[in-house]
Amino acid sequence: MSQWGKPIPGSIRGAVAELARHPWRTVLICQGILWAVALMVAPASILQGSRTAAMERARELGTDRIQVEVEAGARALLEVEDLESIRSVLAENYPQAVVSGQSVSGNSAIEGKGKAYLVASDEGEIAARSLLLLEGRWFKEAADPPEVVLEQPLVAALPGSGSDSPIGQILWADPASSSYRRIGLGGEIPSTARRWLVVGVIRSPGESKVNPLGFGEDRRFSGMIESALQMLGVAPVEAPWMTRGMSLHVDRASLKAAPVDWMVVSVDPSRVNSARVLVEETLIRRGKAPLLYANAAWSILASPELDGYLVLHDVFFGVTVGIGLLVLINLLLLTGRRRRGEVGLRRAEGATRADIFWQFLWEGVLISLVGAILGVGVGVLVAHLRAGLDPSAVMTATLPWKTAIEAVLIATTGAAIACAAPAWAVSDVDPALLLREGR
Predict the structure, then answer these.
(1) How confident is the model at residue 110 (pLDDT cuts 50, 70, 90)?
(2) Does 146 lie in the same domain as 45?
């Protein structure tokens, strides 16, 4: 082992002992690092937490969705292959995007309750449409036996539902009973009926009072906007199976349903416009005549403002790093200046330059790690207190991992250099001169 490797275990012990020997000096430097790191972390905690909350709210409002269908009477309809093409194209630039396709395979009849809608879909639908799972889970593709997920109002309307949970029961649809398929839950199952295992129940999308494009259905102004968009041909007409809570969702493969009637793409709300263009271009290249609908409210109103705050955070972070490192380095250099006599004494006792270097290096690393970790905690705590003073749906705080790691690395590196570099330079001076200075 080289002379640089031998002193490390001993120098760590020596560094710990030296920090403990001078507690007030240690506390002074530690609290300086703590507040510097806290100033780096607190703004990022609020901004990133608020942006995350705003993104979640945007998804609840449907501003992350692109609805795709084809023009009425078009020769080339949407197909499963189109779904795969869209997924492939979006995976390159939008890795978090979710693509799902639904086909309304026909109507079913519930005696005395009206129509139910049999929706052939895939595993991505629950994420793409932000559906809320109330019980159980979403169906798995190619499951044996085939699985189904019911919307909550449909559960109450089904014959044989009773008060028990429908999970684990058999849903059946009998196409031979009438022009519509008669459906039921459990009980006596006709021999000609198709069967699915009920594995989940979701909330009716209509209960959110937000239509598939993210417009509040209980707001008069939203109704005016949607009517205007429909007149311009840029908003879809009502799709009852999407809002009335009377749909049952099954694996497309279990029905061999084709073509795809409706495609839903969920992307980052701030990038919905660029993703929309990419989806449209892809479908046109495949010979389709797509109609795409998206609510651009997020991109127009919220995204630029929040992105501007993130830029402001980067500027503030850079300024804080510069000032914090300047103050920290000056403090450590001043402390090191007063320790020249200590270095001289160590050298007179036989310590090598490597011994001095490693001891001061580990002092800087240890004290900065403690201060930085405490600073991250204090920064997040301050952010939570600030968010609590002005509670709102989109102001919250979170732990900004990237900023926290950067702050800890910057503080640790700066402290280590500021401690070790002067000690290395001073250790080359004649110990007698250093001891004379220390008197």
Answers:
(1) low
(2) no
- Which of 294, 311, 343 is the C-terminal boundary of a domain? 294
What CA–CA distance (Å, rounded) separates 242 from 192? 28
Query: First CA to last CA across the chain, in angstroms?
Result: 38
Residue 135 or 28, more confident: 135
pTM value is: 0.63
Per residue in 161-191, pLDDT tens? 666 788 988 888 887 655 557 788 877 888 8
Number of domains in the chain: 2
Note the pLDDT of residue 298: 60
Q: How far apart are CA 118 and CA 201, in angstroms?
A: 15
The CA-based dihedral angle spanning residues 150, 152, 154, 159, taken in that order and rounded to the nearest 10 degrees: 90
Which of 227 and 385 is assigned the larger pLDDT? Answer: 385
3-class DSSP state for residue 427? coil
Strands 65-70 and 290-294: antiparallel
In a domain, 1, yes or no: no
* CA separation for the pair 214, 296 (Å, rounded): 10
Task: Return the bridge partners of 114, or none.
Answer: 110
* Residue 227 amino acid letter: S
Residue with tokens 């429909």: 230
In contact, 43 and 314? CB cutoff 8 Å: no
Contact 246, 154 (CB under 8 A): yes
What residue type is assigned to position 351 of the chain?
A
25 and 81 belong to one structural domain: no
